[in-house]
């Protein structure tokens, strides 16, 4: 993707956070056609900040798509806005280079490359599908010894999306209900528990000074280590922290939207994570650790939390960046 972006004039994307940040990093206008999750939020934010157009992938007509492409290509104000943003990014402190990977692993690779360049030892605890894919970057790979069958990276999630009905012409409200009722979060959580002994052994072997996770919940191994841990959010920042002035994550609601709709959506969204958090609390109690608020969607690090999102798209016009949070334009390094 990062090899193609410099060659095109307009990007048509589903609106995943990596695609949005990478496209912005190359100064390209976007047509965003979201399918599920935080893609709704990214599509809405790109459009309401004037950097692209949001379309419904299930109902858009050929003519509507062509008209949208023409509109973006001929928008002189947009070209100027993108050039200003691109200049700001190019003049920033980081020397950006693409990290070719899948989803959240891309974010962690970006950070890890910077740490590696400064002489730190980097160990990735990975599932079998990523074996052999991170060592070329100079990282140490430790494969979690679960019973997972051999799959391509992201293949399990892709199968879930296709089988669950999430990628269909449903509202973001219905999409959250499908996620809640699908059982995928149970599989996700059970896999974490199966992998825990292996993770504990890896931690004992390498004795890390710092943990970096891109996950909904930190492993008890990490919590009990008394070592600092960094929470990386490779999704739209609405997924990382909650602010009453902002729409709920994964809703795609506009900033000036109906607050009653926000309230109803937040209720369903919170309920989607309650069951997982109850199971997580039981796990923490087994290890003699403090429990968490079952109504919290994500567990923030008390040390540092990092999210990747372009400054021009961020929500700082509505809320400041919270304490112990850091924004970067992109996780590409």
TrEMBL record:
One of its GO terms (molecular function) is UDP-glycosyltransferase activity. Keywords: Glycosyltransferase, Transferase. Belongs to the UDP-glycosyltransferase family. This is Glucuronosyltransferase. It comes from the Eukaryota. It comes from Medioppia subpectinata.
């Amino acid at each position: 993707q990062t090899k193609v972006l410099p060659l095109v004039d307009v990007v048509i994307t589903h609106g995943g956070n990596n695609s949005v940040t990478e496209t912005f990093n190359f100064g390209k206008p976007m047509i965003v056609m979201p399918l599920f999750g935080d893609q709704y939020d990214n599509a809405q934010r790109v459009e309401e900040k004037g950097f692209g157009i949001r379309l419904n992938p299930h109902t858009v007509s050929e003519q509507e798509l062509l008209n949208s492409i023409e509109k973006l290509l001929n928008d002189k104000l947009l070209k100027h806005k993108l050039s200003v943003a691109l200049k700001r990014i190019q003049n920033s402190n980081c020397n950006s280079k693409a990290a070719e990977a899948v989803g959240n692993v891309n974010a962690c690779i970006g950070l890890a490359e910077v740490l590696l360049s400064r002489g730190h030892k980097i160990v990735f605890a990975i599932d079998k599908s990523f074996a052999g894919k991170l060592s070329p970057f100079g990282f140490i790979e430790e494969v979690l010894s679960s019973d997972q069958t051999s799959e391509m990276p992201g293949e399990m999630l892709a199968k879930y999306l296709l089988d669950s009905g999430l990628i269909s012409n449903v509202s973001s409200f219905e999409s959250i209900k499908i996620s809640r009722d699908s059982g995928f979060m149970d599989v996700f959580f059970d896999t974490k528990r199966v992998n825990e002994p292996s993770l504990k052994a890896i931690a004992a072997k390498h004795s890390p000074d710092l943990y970096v996770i891109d996950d909904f919940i930190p492993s008890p191994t990490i919590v009990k280590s008394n070592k600092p841990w960094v929470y990386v959010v490779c999704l739209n920042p609405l997924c990382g922290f909650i602010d009453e002035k902002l729409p709920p994550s994964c809703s795609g609601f506009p900033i000036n939207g109906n607050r009653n709709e926000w309230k109803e959506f937040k209720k369903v969204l919170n309920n989607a994570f309650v069951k997982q958090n109850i199971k997580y609390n039981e796990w923490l109690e087994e290890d003699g650790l403090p429990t968490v608020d079952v109504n919290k969607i994500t567990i923030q690090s008390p040390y540092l939390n990092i999210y990747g999102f372009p400054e021009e798209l961020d929500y700082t016009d509505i809320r400041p960046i919270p304490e112990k949070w850091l924004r970067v334009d992109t996780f590409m390094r």
